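User: Reviewer 2 asked us to show a designed sequence for the structure in our supplementary figure. I'm pasting the structure tokens here. Could you produce the per-position amino acids so we can include them in the response letter?
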């Protein structure tokens, strides 16, 4: 049930109204900073919605202290990020724009205001911001869409970023998808996209951005306003470090995105991706002998890729693994 509403029955107007959605799961270490930064920047017409996915730590208890300032839903089970975002979106039918904010994100000064101002231009449907990691350095939050050559191009992009090579590497929706950790989007366009894909975790941002790209919408990315992202705070015991427990979801979501390509394209992708992953395994073995975690990551990634490859190649658009999706009975039963 809803424990509290920040703003009830606000009047519809031509002004931009924001519903900021935060989905939590075992987020006790970061949620206070996350909500504190959002609350300080929201207006009376905005609403913060927090959906807790059945946390087993102290997250729910912490959230109850914010019940007078946010709209809070405590779910009994973990239904995944996409389901929670879609559930919240249907609860705020009057709002004009949405923001999806991870619980391990701390928005910088003026970020919400800048997003609101960007949407004053009615042609703008997507807004993103510069991302920093816990070390204060850039944590690139846009990536190339999965494709036959995306692996090679991503390596080149990472080299450019690593050595600060001067190059036009700004966000471009035609080439990049925006990380869903801090994303502002026009609600009507999000609904037209049929909400987030029903993944349990990872990959929903790729498919949404691909839809927006196909619609030719205008996207804005601000490099002079940033947010802090402590990646993996809900899935890792150490905030700021990724957890590789969701590696199967990450591997599957990329293949799912590409499964509607032609047989020839799927085959070419598999060959080039296999070469890329095998090379990374060899490089990690030779040069990162002391970094057991990184070596194990690349090895597991290669094994998962091989495990899913045959079904991906043969089944094409029929390629699906139910364990990575929220079932239709769940989606239809509660939303």
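Assistant: Here is a per-position design you can include in the supplement:
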């Amino acid at each position: 049930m809803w424990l509290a509403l920040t703003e009830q029955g606000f009047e519809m107007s031509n002004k931009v109204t924001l519903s900021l959605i935060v989905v939590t799961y075992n987020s006790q270490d970061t949620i206070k900073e996350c909500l504190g930064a959002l609350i300080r920047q929201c207006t009376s017409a905005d609403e913060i919605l927090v959906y807790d996915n059945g946390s087993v730590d102290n997250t729910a208890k912490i959230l109850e202290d914010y019940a007078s300032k946010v709209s809070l839903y405590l779910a009994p089970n973990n239904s995944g990020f996409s389901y929670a975002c879609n559930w919240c979106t249907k609860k705020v039918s009057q709002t004009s724009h949405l923001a999806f904010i991870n619980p391990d994100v701390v928005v910088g000064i003026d970020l919400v205001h800048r997003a609101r101002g960007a949407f004053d231009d009615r042609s703008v449907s997507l807004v993103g911001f510069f991302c920093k990691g816990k070390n204060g350095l850039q944590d690139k939050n846009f990536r190339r869409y999965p494709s036959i050559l995306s692996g090679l191009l991503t390596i080149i992009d990472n080299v450019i970023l690593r050595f600060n090579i001067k190059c036009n590497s700004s966000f471009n929706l035609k080439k990049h998808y925006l990380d869903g950790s801090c994303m502002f989007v026009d609600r009507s366009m999000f609904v037209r996209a049929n909400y987030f894909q029903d993944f349990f975790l990872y990959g929903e941002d790729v498919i949404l951005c691909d839809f927006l790209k196909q619609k030719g919408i205008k996207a804005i990315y601000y490099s002079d306003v940033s947010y802090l992202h402590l990646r993996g705070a809900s899935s890792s015991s150490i905030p700021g470090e990724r957890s590789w427990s969701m590696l199967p979801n990450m591997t599957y979501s990329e293949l799912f995105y590409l499964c509607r390509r032609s047989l020839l394209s799927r085959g070419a992708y598999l060959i080039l991706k296999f070469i890329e992953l095998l090379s990374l395994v060899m490089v990690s073995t030779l040069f990162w002998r002391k970094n057991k975690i990184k070596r194990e990551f690349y090895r597991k990634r290669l094994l998962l890729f091989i495990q899913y490859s045959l079904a991906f190649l043969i089944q094409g658009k029929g390629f699906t693994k139910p364990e990575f999706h929220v079932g239709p009975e769940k989606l239809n039963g509660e939303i």
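For the response letter, you might also mention the following. The beta strands are 18-24, 47-52, 71-74, 97-101, 105-107, 124-132, 142-144, 176-178, 182-186, 218-229. Confidence is low (pLDDT under 50) at residues 1-13, 236-241, 331-335.
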